[in-house]
Structures are given as C-alpha cells and as structure tokens.
Amino acid sequence: MPSTPHSSDxxxxxxxxxxxxxxxxxxxxxxxxxxxxxxxxxxxxxxRSGSVCDPADAPGAMFLLSRVIDRGTVxxxxxxxxxxxxxxxxxxxxxxxxxxxxxxxxxxxxxxxEVFALIGDIIMSPTFPEAELAIRKAEVITxxxxxxxxxxxxxxxxxxxxxxxxxxxxxxxxxxxxVVEQLTRDRLAAIHAARFAPSELCxxxxxxxxxxxATDAAARVFGGWLRPPxxxxxxxxxxxxxxxxxxxxxxxxxAQADVAYGFTAVARNDPAYYAFSLMNNxxxxxxxxxxxxxxxxxRQGMAYYAFSxxxxxxxxxxxxxxxxxxxxxxxxxxxxxxxxxxxxxREGATARELQESQQYLVGSMPRALETxxxxxxxxxxxxxxxxxxxxxxxxxxxxxxxxxxxxNAAARRVLDPDRASIVIAGPYREP
Amino acid sequence: xxxRATLDNGLKVLIQEEHTAPLASVWCWYKVGSKDxxxxxxxVSHWCEHMNFKGTTNIPRDQVKGIxxxxxxxWNGYTWIDQTTYLETATRxxxxxMLFIEAERMANCLYHPDDCESERTVIISELHGxxxxxxxxxxxxxxxxxxxxxxxxHPTIGWLSDLETMSRDxxxxxxxxxxxPNNATxxxxxxxxxxxALxxxxxxxxxxxxxxxxxxxxxxxPEQSGERRLQIRxxxxxxxLKIAFHAPAFTDPGFFPLLVLDACLTGAxxxxxxxxxxxxPPQRSARLYRALVERGLASAVGGALLPTEHPFLYTxxxxxxxxxxxxxVRDILIEELNRVRREGVTDAELTKAKxxxxxxxxxxxxxxxxxxxxxxxxxxxxSVDSFLETPSRIAAVTLDEVSDVARTVLIDSxxxxxxxxxxxxxTVKSEV
Lengths: 431, 432
Prior knowledge:
The complex is a heterodimer. By secondary structure, chain A is α+β, with helices and mostly antiparallel strands.
C-alpha cells in the first residue's frame, strides 16, 4: 500500500473522562460527567437488582417488574408519566441484566431536572396498578412466545442453561409463561420493597449539564430516600463442563440454523480478565469476526456471521461462539469452530495478532466513548466492578501489559473442544 | 460550517469540522441501490457492496483485515433501495488511510471469481437468516405486494433464484457502471482541518476518471386503485400485522406533514436511517399505542416513513399479543386510521409531535458518524440543502397540512394489508 500512514506512526491521544463521584448520606452513588457535544443529557440509573435477584420460584420476576415499574407512582398516573416523557420526546429504556436493573434516557438539557425527578419517582414510589400489570404481563408473554420461535434466542438461552445448570446465569431472564401468569401485584411490590434501596443505586448523568448541578439534582431527588440495604444474594460456584455436550433443537419452520458453542470463562475481577479479553478479540472479534470469521465466513463462505463474545461478570461469565448457517453446513461449521478453538489452545496466538488486537482495543476507546449514552454505560460498568473513576485512563495500560504467554494461558484454561457445550437450533435434526 | 466542493471528475465532497472528539468519519455514497436493478439481477447492488470489501489493486486481499482496525477504527457499509454506502470512523490520524480505502474501492476492486462464489453462499445465508424472522418476511412480502411496477418492489437482498444464478461478470459489470466519481458523494466529518481534508481528497480521488453517467429508466408506480391484502400462514408463535400506504418522496410537499402525522400516531423517530430506528420512539401517548398496546391487543406498534428519492411507503407494524386475532387488531387499526382521516389531529398533538421531532433531530446528531451519515444520505436521495431545511420544514407544518395528508394518503384504495398467521409449532409436517 503506497503512501499510507503506517501503524507505527499512530499514537492514542491522551484524554480522560475525569467524572465526579459523590456518595449521598443514604449510600446512593452519583457520578456526573459534563460534555458539550449536543444540548442533551443522558441519565442512567442502575439498581444492583438484576435477574440474579429473581426469587428461586419466580425466574423472570425482575423482568416483569421492569415492564410495570414505570406505569404509575404514588404521585403520578400512567397517563401523567406518558405525557411527561412524550411531550419532551423522551424514550425511557428499562433493562434488566444479570446484576443491574437500569432506567436510562436522553433528554434535552433544558428538561434535565424534571426528567431526573420523574425517573427518581419511578424508582422509589411505583404503585404497580393491577390494570397495568395485566397489560404488561400480556406483553411479556408475547415476547416469550416470540423467543420460542427465534432460533438465535433458543440456541443462546439453551446454551446458558447447559453452562449454568444450578446457577442464576442459566435462567431465562424473561422467565416462563407460567411464572409470569402467576406473579401478582403484591409479589412485585414485595420484591421491590426488599431489593430497591439507596445503597444499591448508582445514578450516572452525562451531558450538557454541569456536574455540580447533576449532583445537586440527585441529592434533592434521592437524599431523603431511606431503606435498609437488602441482604446479599449469594452466587453458587460455577462449575466448568466436565465433558462435551450437545443439544439439537429442531425448528423445522426456519430457513437457517443458529449454532451457540461455549464455555464458562472468567469473572470480571479475575486478574486474567484482560488476557481473556484479548484472546476473545483474536478468536472471534478482530476485524470481521477474528479467526472464526476468517474461517467460516471469509474462507468457507458458510455464514453471514461467525464470531465470539465474552461476558465476564461478577461470577465467571461465558465465552460464546455464534454462527448462523444453512442446515447442510451445520456439521462443517461445528467442525470449523472445533478446529479454531482447538488450534488456539494448542498453538496459541501469534505476536502479531496480539499486537493488532491490543492496538485496536486501545485505539477504539475514543470512538467507544464518543456519545453520552456510551460514556454513561462505561461509568456504570466501572462502578459495578469497582474499577475506579480513572479507569478510562488505566484501561490502555492493562491491555498493553498483556503478554502472549498470558493470552495463551487464558486460551488453555477454557478452550477445549472436548469440554464444549453446543446447541444447534434450526431446521436440523441429529443425523 | 459545511464545506462543499466538486472535483473535476464530478465527485461531490462535503466536509464538516467537528472538534468534539479526536475522531474522523468518512462516508462514500453511490447513487445506486436496489431500485436500479433489472429482473434477473435483483440483489446485485448489495452483492457488489460485499465484494467491495475483498481487496483492490493496491490493497491485497490479505491486507484488508486490520487496515482500519490499526487505527482503532470500524468500517462497514450498507445497501438500500436508493443508495450504497461505505464508512470508516477512526482516530483523526487515519483520515488519509480512510480516503485511500474509499478511492481504492471506487476504482480498483478485484472481484476475483473465487471470492464471488464464496460470497454467494454468505449472501444466501444472510437471506435465510432474514427469513427466520416472521416480521421481516412479512415486510418483504408487503412491499412486493404494494408495488406492482416500480423496482422498490423487490427486496434489497434480492430474490433467491437471482442470487443462485448471477455471474461474476454481472457483478463486475454493475460495479464498473455505477462506481464512478460522478455518481458519488464523499463526506468527511470530524476533528479535521477542512482545507487539509479537501487537499487529501483531491490527492486520493482527483485522478480517478469520470465515466458515462448511468442511464436511469424510471417506472412510475401507477396509482393504486383498490386495497390489496396478503396473508402468510406458517408455523410460528406470534401474529404480526402491517399496513402500508403509498407515501410521498422526501422532496414532495406531503413528506413533512406525514412525518408529523406519524409522530402523532406512533411517536417520532427522527430521520437517521443509521441510528434513529434502533430504539423505541416516545410513543406512550401516541394514538395507535393507546388504541392497541394500552388496550392489551398489541405488544408493539411502530410506524415508518423513511426519506426516499421516489415515493415509497408509510408502514404501520403491529405485533399482536398472544391470543389476540389479526382481525381484532386490523379492525381497531383501521378504525383509528379512519378517525384521523376524518378528524385530523389536535393542536396539542401537533405541538407534541413537533417537540418530539425537534428533540429527535438533536439526538440524531450526537456522533460524527451520525452527522456524516445524514449529510451523505440526503445528498444522495435529494440534496444536502433539503436536509439542512429539515428543522424549519417541520416547524412550518400546519394542522391543515396534516389533515390533508391524512385524507389523501390514508385512504382504503391506497393501502396494502398483510398479516402473518402463525400455525402452531409442530403442526405442519416438514419435508426438510
């Protein structure tokens, strides 16, 4: 390539988010970062009450709670809330991950205080009206039924159930139709009362509002919220699969099969996390799907997508390989994944691959932290895992410190086709 | 401040300095999409897009991987009915690298026969993946039914038999016909100096010769003279229903009144095809949400009016709740559409819709990638000036204009209704 810049010329600009962090007297955390890109603010409020907090007999309870919590408070009807949001052009997004229950939205700066107060009210004082609960149950049941007909969802959820048989990570986050039907208003209110407390709250505000103003707003809204901290939810140990397992879910009404192939991998606070992150990037992310994309999509033309993902979490999260292939290519795709996974464990990565992935992950940080919403998620993640306010500046050092030996040790720790869990969902039956 | 230039070879250039992050985004847009395809070659625009990531004369195949990732960047492309586009967003140091890639893509792609064959199965896999989703399948069938003459009728991915039979020569010939500087717009947005960026653009693209401007044959879709209906009966779990009306093109006077009407019916989405449609709109108080979702008949309702060069469709999509029949949903939907046709919207609804659209336009422009997308998208389907007028065009929409567009667009004879009727899982004996 003539007269193009060489990668060695490239340096990452020095930057830093430098957010402010305050802890209110009731334990609520407030993190604020002022940006001036557009006259808008992202508000991201998270409670440490994800699906791991679902009662053992009611998986999916937190998800249903997330669908109904914003449909009426002590002081606001569902219509009031709808008008407050819609008149300002705001979409309130509620989501439940394994460990967090989040409410997030972006609003114009001029609306910040009112919108923050509204979301605070939703978190602290929901009333779960019966009529609303009935409507949201019907929505969730429909969503579960849609998932039942979705090969990608079936493959991944079944893989998680295989990898985490006696662990909350193995549960369907939406639960089952039976459980949803049986959940009552009183049960949801009790779960809310037990799990939602200021000690579990982290409020992140990123955008065109001074950090001090954001912190003041949070203190006004949440400062008087008093509730005792909930009991910790113990997580059982994760147990790596002792042998290869394979499940086929025939879905003969579909055109393409989804393959999900994985292992229990690593916790976010494991010192080996950065080595795992780079290993995953080389295996199934870099450029168009790493080594897996090279093999399955580029060289063999078998799939529109083939990649891996690593979900390091409080407990050891999974490393999952995914591919979508025609039914006649299922066995060849699984064999190709076996080959790449096995080769990585046997032979390791090359120095060039590691250098490329390090350069990419470090260099992509300005892009990854360009928008208010992305910064807010980054700050929430940093808070959840206790990574510190300067984590954006330290992350490049962590990535650069990873050696080839560390990556290869990570690969040997989990990548073993003889212990892979595999689920195939689609128009396919076991030969 | 938007800097505009046209090179001697006809390449339009749009450059905007945005010093909010140490990044630059480059997009190269071509006026070619699935509406330019002939029978037998449906899907060729999209397949060409795939081939244009597979090496060039000066970027050997084995050096494609990592060429932009070295700069922490991402790159991608997409094809739709009016356009094919490619983008890179990376640190500002990579500006010349990004321009080099796009210049190579314009002039020097290889189309190696082995790569064409390998990509055939990748694209068929993409098509099959889409068919796994009943909602997407219904959308494809609805569009094909709503149009009987205009090439907007065929899916951008193409029909399967065309994908099975198209040759390398078909692909390469199409590439050479449309990938010309005088058929393209290059957009640069980010932490760059506009003068320096323009100099780099001239250095990379200036020597690419122009070509004969592609001949555009235009079939005008005849006025629809009666309601059309289609039903898909397949194994599944969920009922989906869609209703589509022939709608104004972006530059037609009715476009913005219909955009406001859609905001009243289903919530405002903004106008960024790249980012606006990823999440839900603000719609809890919108008419169709209240009529269908709040009454427990639907779990989701959405509206789509997309900016297009020729008149396309305004589509409302509904997911029925488990146990609700398509008849029930269809009757309520039609009742609501007839009501707005008869009565128009209220002043309060108009005010709310405009406030929503104002906010969405702000949110549409947060990243340099989004800004660059918008400049190039509108220059390709209309003109960048028409895009820059968007806020004032929305602000100027009147109640009468919304009523007029409701009366003229939402009529029975202009609509196509499609629904996916799920047959229970396992009820159909399969031959697979």
